[in-house]
Amino acid sequence: MNHLNRILTQTFGHKSFRGRQREIVERLLAGKHALVIMPTGMGKSLCYQLPAVVFAQQTKPNTIHRFITVVLSPLIALMKDQVDALNAKGISATFVNSSLQRRERLDRYDAIKSGQYDLLYVTPERFRKMEFREVLATRDVSLLAIDEAHCISEWGHDFRPDYTRVGEIRGLLGNPTTIALTATATPDVQADIVRQLGIDCEEIKTFHEGIERPNLSLDVEHVIDDDEKVRLILATKKRHAGSGIVYFTLIRKLLEFSDQLTQAKIAHLIYHGELPRNQRRQIQDTFMNEDGHLVLATNAFGMGVDKDSIRCVLHADMPGSLESYYQEIGRAGRDGKPSACLLMYDERDLATQMEFLRWSNPDAGYYERLYDLLSKDLEKANAFGLEWVREKLHFKERHDRRLEAALLMLERWGVVTGSFSNSNVEIAAELPNELTDNVRLAEKLYRDQQKLWAMLQYAKHAGDRREYIHQYFGLPSVE
After folding, report:
1. In which band, very low, low, confident or very high, does the pLDDT at 65 lie, cut at 50, 70 and 90?
2. What is the pTM assigned to this prediction?
3. Which letter does DSSP use for residue 66 in this model?
4. What is the Cα gyration radius of the chain?
5. What's the angle, vertex CA 179, arms to CA 174 and CA 184, rounded to 5?
6. pLDDT tens for residues 359-414?
7. Are 345 and 223 in contact (CB under 8 A)?
8. CB atoms inside a 10 Å sphere around CB 105
């Protein structure tokens, strides 16, 4: 057994590499860059975690410091789970993010400087902090892993502005060997990722593991009302004993379906972003640790859902993009056994998604009005909370949800910090040009509309749906 196989077996508990994992690992160990596009649940994290172990066994000359791998991730809620899993395997890993108290954060900084830890998980936003950059300057970064790399691209489905600084971050770290990983990326997004990394396209190799999951049945049912959707949920769950997820766009609709299932005496869980954090965690733990549960959820449910035996994933509403849809169905059947993926399409869903696009794409005037309100009345906004701000902005349209989208973008661009739930919102910067340029914002809306159009065509597609997905993501035809 060679060195890599021994680590794979003894540390990670796998008998063999999957797909092109070994080729990716060997490329990184040779100091060469990689872009990895691999289906959810197929082992992306191993591609950087195993090299991190190998690099950590080496020591920087004339020091006691082991090399360290830095992992950029947007998923604060998952970092602890990922680090706990690595520690359980005997790998020295930690995270630094906003969930830590000041004393905890400083203790970890000291441990990093003293040479501890082989892997460090952080958000790209952490690099705004000078003290953090000074800490990392004391270590030799052997590998930079960028998880959820589609967040780099403004044309990806979960753009995060600080991800556009990855080229600068690479420079701060000494331009280490770099691997970018994602489950979904169109050809345009792939090119944008490489450009943002600041790596010559000749120096980075793309490993596209495809999106083929032959054990998943991809079905679409055209329905005319919610009663038909309920019947399909019940019938699908009856045919596929085991755990299942039903995704909804609107919390209101989710709760209506929950009432109907309760009346039918069908046990189920519910999960959405308005539940308290501890309750969401409890529901997710129940789903993960026990078999057979059906959960009704918004797309907030998914981060950290790495359960092998999910037998069905249903969409009671049409998703806004094929990227989102593919990530969500990718949670089914990770054990390789047959699993059902059912999209229920009601023509009314299109109007709902069009409204969502309007809410999630405020224009420049809206950002300016919100910023002006917070600048003038921040004390009142913190005292009276989100609904007070909404009333000031939407006194004629209280159902308008642009506020949530605008606040998220202000946070991602570093304009505001804190939260209204904690009454500690602060203004940290002026509005960036990106949020005041109506031409740029209109282009973003147009691209989102194109994604929705592609999703609609998928729902109506009469041919091979796998072939349609392959064409969308720029992959060779299904053989």
Report:
1. low
2. 0.82
3. B
4. 23
5. 140
6. 889 999 999 999 999 999 999 999 999 889 998 887 666 677 899 889 988 988 88
7. yes
8. 19
